[in-house]
Fold:
Amino acid sequence: MNRTPAALFLGAALLGPVAAHAETVALGPANAMVELNARAFLVPVSGQFRRLAGTLSTDPDGTCSVALNVAVDSLTMSMPLLGGILLGADMLDPAHFPLLRFAGSCAADRVEGQLELHGEAHPLRLDLRRAGGVIRASATIRLVDWGITSRPTISASPVRITVAVRP
Structure:
C-alpha cells in the first residue's frame, strides 16, 4: 500500500539548479501546508493542519532530507462535525498523540521516509510534483494502517495527504 502524507519534502530535488553548498530551509505555516482529502459517506471533505514546523535540507549532490512535525489538534475540516469525530479520543486522539511526524529523504520524483501517526511509525512514499512555484508531495493512507480501528467507515477509507511547500 502506498502511504504518503509528508511528500512535500522530496520537492527539494526539483527546486532548480543544485546549490554549491548545503542549504536548510525552515518549514512553517508561512511557506508550507499539510492538507487531507477524503470522502465521508460519499461526500468529498477536506481539511488542513494549521500548525506545523520542520526543515528541508538540500545537499550539493542533489539529495535532500526533510523533517516535519504537525500538531494533530490543529486540524480544521470543511465539515466541522467530521473534524470533531477525527479529533476524538477514539480516532486521532491528540491528547495522547499530539504530533504527526515525518522524516525522510528526497529523490527526483518522490520522498521516502517514516510517518509516525497515533504512536505508530510506518514507511511512507510520497509522489512529488512541481507547478507554479509550489512543490507538492502526496500519498494515500488509511488510518487503520496506523492502528486507528474505531469507526471503520472512516478509518478504513482512503485519505489523500498532500504537503505543499512554496520555497
